[in-house]
Design a protein that fits this description.
The protein has 240 residues and is an alpha+beta fold. 30% of the residues lie in helices and 31% in strands. It folds into 2 domains: 3-66, Arc Repressor Mutant, subunit A; 75-228, Chorismate lyase. The protein starts with a helix and ends in a 12-residue tail after the last strand.
């Protein structure tokens, strides 16, 4: 392996073993140069590789940070890590569609253990729980189950949930959405989802489980979106 690959591999092993924990800052470039006996260019290439696979985030003038818990996403071979975070509303409006939302649930709860783990939160924290049916030109396409920490996304209103939560985060709160870790799988709908999406009993769904991150590495969203299998396709680009 090349020197930067050796450094990247060691850092990844330390992160996955828990030596460097979620949201923890990595050693500085100068410190890593001493630890590994390599140049700044080598360290930068190593951290760029880890950032490229979604394991860490880097902030200019601040350093590199381990992203929130993504263990399940890294272990799952179907995981796709994407920096394309337009959101349903922006994505479909770019196609000329009118986007609307039917809000089924908008409440504040203490997170279940799995949700707390995905958001690097504590069970005593408060999170929004949002269930929405998203429509494009009146056609129901997806049921979204979304959880967001109130401490990171304060002031969320029903009007934001009906329109675009991402707009509230970026325009209202001045935060920068950076990337997402996703797992895509095929599932069968629940009776409630069949009713909401107007599906035949044997129509499968394409489920996208996602943890969204801000540019400082904090997880701000855990969501499960269940798309109608006959109305949605998932596109990704893989590089060797």
């Amino acid at each position: 392996m090349l020197k930067y690959e050796v450094v990247a591999s060691d850092l990844r092993n330390r992160i996955e073993s828990g030596q460097y924990k979620a949201n923890e800052q990595l050693p500085t470039i100068a410190e890593m140069c001493k630890i590994y006996g390599v140049s700044e260019i080598t360290v930068k290439k190593a951290t760029e590789q880890l950032a490229g696979i979604g394991l860490i985030s880097t902030r200019k003038g601040s350093g590199s940070y381990v992203k929130g818990d993504v263990g399940a996403f890294l272990r799952d071979p179907s995981a796709e890590m994407s920096g394309q975070m337009a959101g349903f509303k922006a994505e479909h409006e770019q196609l000329g569609a009118e986007v609307t939302s039917l809000v089924k649930t908008f409440e504040v709860i203490h997170p279940e253990p799995e949700v707390a783990e995905r958001l690097s939160a504590d069970a005593a924290d408060f999170v929004y729980r949002i269930v929405r049916v998203r429509l494009a030109d009146g056609m129901p396409l997806v049921v979204e189950y979304t959880y967001m920490p109130i401490s990171i996304v304060p002031g969320l209103r029903l009007a934001d949930v009906e329109s675009s939560i991402y707009e509230h985060i970026e325009q209202g709160l001045g935060l920068r959405i950076d990337s997402a870790h996703r797992i895509v799988r095929a599932v069968m709908p629940t009776p409630q989802e069949r009713e909401w999406l107007g599906l035949a009993p044997d129509t499968p769904l394409l489920e996208v489980e996602q943890v969204g991150f801000l540019d400082d590495g904090r997880p701000f969203e855990y969501s499960v979106a269940r798309h109608s299998g006959d109305r949605y396709s998932f596109h990704a680009v893989a590089k060797h």
